[in-house]
Amino acid sequence: MIDENIIECLENVANILRLHSIRPTTKAKSGHPTSCLSSAEIVATLFFNVMNVDPKHIDYLDNDEFILSKGHAAPVLYAALAEIGVFPREKLMTLRQFDSELEGHPVPRVKGIRVATGSLGQGLSIGLGMAYAKRLLGINRRVYVLLGDGEVAEGSVWEAINLAGKLKVSNLIAILDMNRLGQSEPTMFQWDGEAYARRVEAFGWNTTICNGHDVKDLLRAFEEARKSDKPFFIIAKTTKGKGISFLENIEGRHGTALSEEELKRAESEILPKIKEIKFQPSNFIEAKISIEPRKKYSIKTDYKIGDMIATREAFGRALVKLGEQNERMVVLDGDVKNSTFTIYFFNKFPERSLQCYIAEQNMVGVAVGLQSQGFDVFLSSFACFLSRAYDQIRMASYSRANLKIAGSHAGVSIGEDGPSQMGLEDLALFRAVFGSIVLYPCDAVSAEKLTCAMANYEGISYIRTTRPKTPVIYSNDEEFHVGGSKALRCSANDEVTVVAAGVTVHEALKAYEKLKADGINIRVIDCYSVKPLDAETLIKASKETKHIITVEDHYPEGGLGEAVASLGLKPHILAVRKMPHSGKPEELLAEQGIDAGGIVRKVKELIL
Amino acid sequence: MIDENIIECLENVANILRLHSIRPTTKAKSGHPTSCLSSAEIVATLFFNVMNVDPKHIDYLDNDEFILSKGHAAPVLYAALAEIGVFPREKLMTLRQFDSELEGHPVPRVKGIRVATGSLGQGLSIGLGMAYAKRLLGINRRVYVLLGDGEVAEGSVWEAINLAGKLKVSNLIAILDMNRLGQSEPTMFQWDGEAYARRVEAFGWNTTICNGHDVKDLLRAFEEARKSDKPFFIIAKTTKGKGISFLENIEGRHGTALSEEELKRAESEILPKIKEIKFQPSNFIEAKISIEPRKKYSIKTDYKIGDMIATREAFGRALVKLGEQNERMVVLDGDVKNSTFTIYFFNKFPERSLQCYIAEQNMVGVAVGLQSQGFDVFLSSFACFLSRAYDQIRMASYSRANLKIAGSHAGVSIGEDGPSQMGLEDLALFRAVFGSIVLYPCDAVSAEKLTCAMANYEGISYIRTTRPKTPVIYSNDEEFHVGGSKALRCSANDEVTVVAAGVTVHEALKAYEKLKADGINIRVIDCYSVKPLDAETLIKASKETKHIITVEDHYPEGGLGEAVASLGLKPHILAVRKMPHSGKPEELLAEQGIDAGGIVRKVKELIL
């Protein structure tokens, strides 16, 4: 039996949330109040009855979690957080202001919010990652994800639904705010709740349809969800703009605030419904499990100079060494673990490995969820296929996420498989992620040590690995750090500096020998840290030699050459400029002029 | 009744295709023969019985179409094309060689192949676009898409399934080669055909499960497909490595060719099954409808200097003008048409507009399919959300596609909505697409004319538009071209050149006035063509002024500044370097130092 008094209290809270949604958006003159209004009862019921939350320790792991996947309804979430006491109500009116953390869409600057949302269709993957994390941690808590009906068209949502169904992640609960209206027109299925239920059930979830404005019916749905042995999907039929007569179910009011005059009319409808009720929610808990601070890790290698080993394989070996030191390390892969060599970790630590199948968007979302619960997450695929998840990676930077991403099969050096499998834009993409670091080792020693540097980095780190085997050139005691480089050949007589990374380092070293035979000295720099660059070494080289050449197995735009150019140097950029295609790696490197021969030609062209 | 003779003939063809799949891969020492072997009967049945094809005019529009979404099975497709006579069989043995167009994964260099595949999960969206195109053209033909079972985990597949179901595109037929094994382990559902059928049916398709090695059963399935009033999904249970005893249903043989010794054993199993049969396929047709060459379009504008209008809105107006001239122009949007202003085209030409809902990956795939049938396709979303489809856009460049892409809401100048909605990496992303052009207008006149330039460009073009209104600064007779720029302020006494684009052009003009009041002359260049750059004008400016400053509402990596730096100039790059957040546009531009004040400060720092 549900206490009628509780229902009245929750209805009251819902109307308070409505008020807190329309007032700040009107003050800000922008925002999405109608999308808040449709969710008011759902959010009120969750925060004041259903979710186990400790408002004083909302960041602790033994809270239930809430993700607002429909991030544009941020005001209703801010309102709920204020109402449960996470921060003062007065702050709500600072919404969208320059100096307020209550931004237009949620970001983790706000206490009680773990991840950024606002690019639609990403919340469920993150929720899956969080729910899976709680399972790994043995914490018996649930994750609630509030979805908009428009965003369910995103394939990433179905990737999450698919994997959650397969893994039977029963502590994951999605609530669909089925308010019928998208931004520009009605959604695909409008109020056809069965259309959603049919789809989601086919993917191995339990579902129910309820009236999203009927608190009693919502409580019934959440009770069913708690009993489910599968992930659970609540389809809540709602009305966009609910509670304000002149906004209810109206098209064309998606992203507009109420005018001052409209606000007055709206208040005159809502205020009379709000009562002064003493309400002691029964869902507040005392949370106890905080996230432990991260430790520092180290790696020792045992290679001989000249050993032939691919950097992707060395990366895989490093993962195992790190996993031995770090029980909170998790590795994800998208059905290429035998190519990216995460398979070593999968074999050694199956309980901390997650096969995400060929669904990179969801893989990144799951990783964001896992890291939000204190895990150190590496994820891996072919460099080119990571581009599939770029929007998720971009958003992860706004989540202030700690993500370690490895992209294998970089460049034309993969050879016969052809351009569909070649990462030729990944340096540009990952350099443009806010706060990222981009590492690109050329041999096994540097690959292992840079993998360790990623483990120790807080933020988004990317390592680019190569398919073919390359010789070990570094001794095992060599150290590598973020923002470093190695001057592999350096003399007072160097005429030209060649800045290389990854596979082209070996081409530059070959070019060095050829040119030396002709009496020409070049400086060779292994620029293994593409972001940040070792500016000091590069500027010094530009002063000490007549020319700088950069050489990269990547398109010229946004890659190593432009990075070096952005320092104010004037590099001659050797890069992939012809349409890539299949062939032997050495043929393709030669065709693009980024092999030893191409470097020799360019050096001679510059100085002879 | 199905003729037993036909069945024997098709089985025979299947074994010939097997032979043509294993021999070239062994010669190339790489490839995915086992993935070809599982599809042999499906491909044989399609090309020699089911599909209406004209081998002599395979590029004509009134052929049925075939898309190999599981692109790694390229050899079996090449084999089929050779066997129906599109090119000589001898060419098959050039597979994966440097100078052969028979690349590791399909590209349209090969006659009979319209689009590149190989990044999994993209073929069905393209097929949907092609099928929709045939419907628009009134051509009663079907599109067959062969999917791998691993790739069905990709959300993009479900975006395509969803939209095709909604639109009831009944001339779209998908065939799932359910061979149970992914690259690194078994697929999610292995041979559980019902798992796929349940899911796909829930999305509004008809389905059947068949034995993918039983030609009779396949023919039955295709017959059902032809009768369906909905898109049709055939789940073909197959065996990876089928036909070669030691490869059948074996893990760990995804991406490896047979050794010479294995090839001999394999041939000894397959050759005895191949008979010399005279076979006159009944599905060959005489196609008649070729793709018409594209025309050139022009635009006239009617603005007054100083009119306040957002470039996104001018883009929308230009679409209508182009649509009036071009009956083959189609516009797609992802539920933001009222923000990107494609709504003008949608309202004027509803029959040539397609609402793709919030599913950007599928939108790009559909566009690739449409343009392959001769349509001129514009597609639009917020710049940041286009990053969702980057893998599709990357692949479109290998499809040699003609795509016109518009990204609105560029930069921090969008203001209060915050970083989730800000395009801050789009210049980097689109510059790194092979063969692309990147345009960035600052006012309505240039926005319209550059939209026209896109219409006339063959390849992938991108236009970046701005949310806030900006004043018209160009007269209506001004011309704009790919690779051009405008020196808006230019004198013999310029001390510094400021290179701007989009919203920062107006800041640079304001800075000009402020500096002029202090007796400092700057040159202001509107660099509206970010790729290719107007190198001549920029280099001239670098010679005539002491310093170059670039200023962009974009992250520094891969943007305007690095593009200018790549010319060998040494720009001081003003860009978005602090974590972006909500606020008023002018506050945010100022915080990032990319407003007039920031430009003035930088100029003075350099010369005083």
Brief write-up:
2 copies of one chain form a homodimer. Helix content of chain A is about 40%, strand content about 15%.
What features would you highlight for this structure?
homodimer; 38% helix; five-stranded parallel β-sheet; Rossmann fold; 22 helices; elongated; alpha/beta; 608 residues; seven-stranded mixed β-sheet
Topology of this structure?
The structure is a homodimer of 608-residue chains.
Chain A: H1 4-28, H2 33-37, H3 40-50, E1 65-68, H4 74-83, H5 123-137, E2 143-148, H6 155-167, E3 172-178, H7 193-202, E4 206-211, H8 215-227, E5 232-237, H9 260-270, E6 308-309, H10 311-325, E7 329-333, H11 337-340, H12 343-348, E8 353-355, H13 360-372, E9 376-382, H14 383-386, H15 390-398, E10 403-408, H16 426-431, E11 437-439, H17 444-455, E12 460-464, E13 470-471, E14 486-489, E15 496-500, H18 503-517, E16 522-526, E17 529-531, H19 535-544, E18 547-551, H20 560-565, E19 572-574, H21 585-591, H22 596-607
Parallel strand pairs in A: 1-2, 2-3, 3-5, 4-5, 7-8, 7-9, 9-10, 10-12, 11-12, 15-16, 15-18, 18-19
Antiparallel strand pairs in A: 6-13, 11-17, 14-16
Helix pairs in contact in A: 1-3, 1-4, 1-9, 3-4, 3-8, 5-6, 5-13, 10-17, 13-15, 18-22
